[in-house]
Amino acid sequence: MNTPELREQCARRLLSAGEATSGLSAFVGLDGFVDEIIHVVDKRSSAESFQRLPTIAALATRLAAAAGQSTNVELVNHVTKLGGNGPIMANALAAFGLRVTYVGTLGYPTLHPVFADFARVAEVHSIADAGHTDALEFDDGKIMLGKHYPLKEMNWANIQSRFGREKFAAHLQSADLVGFVNWTMLPYMSDLWDSLLRELCPALTGPRRKMFFDLADPEKRNPEDIRRALDLILKFEQHFDVLLGLNEKEAFEIAVVLGLPLPEHTPAGLTQLTAELSRQIPVHLLVVHPVAYALAASRGTACLVEGPYIARPLITTGAGDHFNSGVCLGRLLGFGDELCVLTGVATSGFYVRTGQSPTVKDLVAMLQNWPV
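User: That's the sequence. What structure does it adopt?
Assistant: Structure tokens below.
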């Protein structure tokens, strides 16, 4: 569903929130990457002009043809930007007006220059060097080639020595939204979560607040690790209203780990799977975001909201993180499942069209002038 009435209701709710977002706080981490957004050359006509390979399949065909022979693949840097699920999501939350504190791997002991603008809109603390991603973008998706070795420095011992145990505990206690993302690429994230659950969470007081998790493409992790991560995420539900974000690929990977029957890759099939995942992982809200629409489920009931799909986006890297930030904004403002998902797809839709994180006013304008 995505009707003009639903969009108008969402726009009114966002307008009525006014300056409320400036009173909200977010504590987010724990990764950080330097992203190079790259196009792959198909044919070059001059030193300045080339046609890029349009699809992942086209690259796969070219690479397969080189087996046993060798080939040359030219990569052209389109833009270098801050990366990592955490910084992109946190930057988007800051654009909404939230007061954001970020702890991650953004350069150590000196912040990497690519995060300078981020540090002007958020309180940023880095305890390790950044990872690096070559993001090969195509019309039908992207291939993320990552160098992750600095991320092993993100662990509970280094957080305590380089950031501070008491400061971390204070933010965990006070933030309206806590977000821990990119579990797959942070090898000690599960151990860190376990330490937080044992050492800090029992002392939390006050009303329940929101906590967001994103596993970030767990295909390379073994099933036992994934099941442990899901068990730990569920334990946080004792202390927070937990939101878990998955893309379509991740939803099917989690289904395999849980031994669930796999439906067809259709809206109806994914709606069925999202509802079943929410029964198997009974967090406060579970969201799944394919490219053209998104779903949310709570208490085993799923809803689907169509997004403002665009065939040729300006940028796709970071779209999922923007969707997650929009969902979290909606929940922080008390929106129901459908409006949370609509806020999410509007946020990601604005981002892939402009390359910029939207403000709340930008969201309202997009909802009132929905792209055809």
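The chain has a mean pLDDT of 96.
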